[in-house]
């Protein structure tokens, strides 16, 4: 193995990627596997450089002194050789004047070239910010300090280039040729891609690593089945453990599994319909952008029409309630088979198509988190499809089935007020997600996490069967509430939804068009990536205002169930834990991505989710 040359903390000269310029950097780390040094520039930018791109400061100083000591004699001899004895002094003065004019012209050319480069980079940044959005991650920066300033600092404008070239004697002989190489559009884009290129291997394991993910593969299904069994008891106390276990043969019914498959492939058919616009996702590690058809809301309308037709022909939708546990088992079995298929096919996927968060080399961890980032069958994106279609729309259908079951079991002509509130609140949430379907393309589920057991089970089992827990609870444990209480709960849900939607809209609008005059009041901190971190508006209130809105809505969904048992509030507790975990992931990724700018942002916005609390 090659020995390490530079030590941590050593100040050296590092070459800026895509150029011939060297800048003073500090070594902060070394990877024994990739043999790359992690260095930190003076502006806070951290990059991984090869040893061949790093030099000691003494080598530059030696070259400079050597050059300065020999240059005068060469210049003197050159002048003596070129000077004609018969040429008058006036001619020599004119030649000197022409030489100065020639130098001024060259300097002007360098400045104009650098200005053109800056304009090109600014255009690139605007295009990137218009397409890149990240759900839950604070965005933007001070309106007066544009993204161009960031690139101006990163690529070092004309005066800085001149200073470095003069100081370290790095000016090439054929300057025009080198400038064309440095400032070509190809080099610019290669530089930016080098900065954002993800690591090929997952080094930091989440969820407790291999042991934690192995346990979660058993704990998550057990939690779902435990909640559903407890919810059907006369006394649905979480302390009643273990609940009465049904016979194993009663948990599986081929007809139920067939209905689940029919539902899954019906949603797949709706997904493939040539309706709705086609948009590009965020750039992958190889620079390629995948295309996605945005038709989730149309799929919801078609599903509603299908369910309405079944009810018209007197199909008993409360069949879902009677066989709820069997449907959960069928969904869990299907998600397991799907996860096995996804992992097997990922073994043949190219390296650049693997998930940055699921490429650890450990079977259990990669199987759980997902090894392949965007598994597709032709143009059919399996992860994107499962993210919003079968589970999320299925959640609404299950809620409707619980409403009909409540009316049948309790002989009601109309549903209870509690059931109406739960159905209405959660219907609004699902419709909002489908209407703003394009926003999911910037979430960590799509951009970072692979498609494995975690997302497959979460999308197909956890979302439809745990998120509908309040409606399932109300069927067996009806709770009467007054109209004033219902009005107060509705206001609470409205506040949560307003915060959730306004925060996401503010962030998404800024990412699409940071120069929008309507957003001129927003201020943000510039970062080395060309993005910005909002410090005013909702994102200046707390770091994750959309999470705050989520938690308020989750509380409003549980309040119609009363306070006799804590079971309906399991979703609130789970949601808080989930969002705190996501917030911790966001903090970690943002700190790595934005460096010193993130530290400045955290000082400006100290509260994470709950103002004045957390």
Automatic annotation (TrEMBL):
Catalytic reaction equation(s): 5alpha-cholest-8,14-dien-3beta-ol + NADPH + H(+) = 5alpha-cholest-8-en-3beta-ol + NADP(+); 4,4-dimethyl-8,14-cholestadien-3beta-ol + NADPH + H(+) = 4,4-dimethyl-5alpha-cholest-8-en-3beta-ol + NADP(+); 4,4-dimethyl-5alpha-cholesta-8,24-dien-3beta-ol + NADP(+) = 4,4-dimethyl-5alpha-cholesta-8,14,24-trien-3beta-ol + NADPH + H(+)
The EC number(s) this enzyme carries: 1.3.1.70
GO BP of this protein: cholesterol biosynthetic process
Comp. bias (Low complexity): 66-75
Transmembrane segment boundaries: 207-229, 256-273, 294-313, 325-344, 455-475, 481-500, 521-542, 562-581
Pathway entry: Steroid biosynthesis; cholesterol biosynthesis
Protein known as: Delta(14)-sterol reductase LBR
